[in-house]
Write a structure and sequence with these properties.
The structure holds two protein chains of two kinds. Chain A is about 40% helix and about 0% strand. Chain A is built from two helices and no strands. Chain B is an all-beta fold. Chains A and B meet through α1 and α2 of A and β1, β2, β3, β4 and β5 of B.
Amino acid sequence: MMKPIITLTMALGLSLSLSSCSVYNSAGDAFSMENVEPWQRDVLAQDDMQLDPDGMRTFADEHIYFSKEASTGGRGVGGGGCGCN
Amino acid sequence: MNNIKNKLTIATCSLLGGTAQQAHAIENSWDLDSSFLYYGEADDRVEVKKAMAFLTGDISAEDTVNVNLVLDTMSGATPTGAVRSKNSSVSFSSASGAGSSTVDGASVDRVHFSDTRLGIALSWAHSQDRLTTLTYGGSLSVEKDYQSYGASFNYSLDTEDRLTTYTAGFAGSFDEIYRKTDGTPEPLSRVEDASIFSNGERTAYDFILGVSKVLNRKTVGQLNYTVSYSDGYHTDPYKVISEVNLVQDTDSGEFAWAELDRYYEARPESRLRHAIFTSMAHQYGESGETVHASYRFYTDDWGIASNTLDLTHRTPLSASSYIEPHFRYYRSSAADFFLHSFNNVDVSTPIELPQYASADYRLDESVGITTGIEYGTKISGGRFRARLEYINWQYEEAEYDETKAVVLQFSYQKLFD
């Protein structure tokens, strides 16, 4: 039962990755390193450029996946557990 | 007034502890974010309604406080771990103690429950100097059969050019676990005549090391390592595992599990977890489309290893609104002690029980896929967001081999300048 899902997922993930890459002039654009002066940080200051642009959504998702999956962690530490079903 | 917030990440993620920080954020003094979330599983399983309110504000030029309130109401039915046997010879007054549980063969594998959870978290961020921020946090979570208390400390340091932020954090928590009827059942004892032990207790210690870095004018990235060690009661006091025997139906000729007996599950008394998490935000194009991507590798000493990929792509619809598809992929191996059931081939001899065993579907090998979409717009001095998501988890061996869920969330954040 899982194999078709895995195959579909890999195909979808690959498609997403490729489509994301295609919109860049080059895939390296996102990872190119450059010094950014304070007056050049207008884009970086936008809400949607925060590493976590919606703390409320992230909080809710973390709780859902913490409750339904065996893996947790990575984003931060602490908080509180729950006896989730 | 805004000095602190300009140095804090917008989020208090995870379950409200210290998080790796980012050196630029929103430009207001106070904000109140409120949200309602509905989570519903197919087949009349779990349903959760979650109301949340996050208040964040500056109380001085160097100090910011954050108050988070969460109220969950949960109900529905959840798999116990028992097989769906029509040939069960086991009888119970209650399979779980978590509410009603019928014993008519067709539904003993699921238990109905209803609970309410209140979560409160407070944090205080203090700017020690121009580049250093200390964040102290505390949290409390209470429900009818679980209590959790936590505290955290987070240290973040910006470089002189403010393009890099280093983070180190520590958190500790103490949890008390019990059934609604009090106590916890003796692990791997027969459900029919199990002894009830005292409430379970567990302590956990979490550490994080992280770095976030501005790579260029339109890209910021992050890399975290977290390690967590927990000690104490890790068993789920409601979960059970069946002893079964494969029988052939005399009429149809099909093979099916016949349940011979049922035992409470048992998990190890400690758990060591590691996670490496990396994420990035990148904006491109004249209209300012933003991609968020993250990847996490997780492993623990229960034998679980997982990979999680998360992608969002935000497209502006106007100067004040956007639409954002979301895709998440999760794949995990099974815990070493996960079993579908105890298969007793020779029913004339008692089975030999292992040290640990669980039939909890969440410990099985699994794949989870989330697809969703969010719409956001700025209205009346704040921002509104609505999202709809569909989650599908598939399990390799568990009795219930699939969970399907929808998530609907509405949020409104009011900004006070």
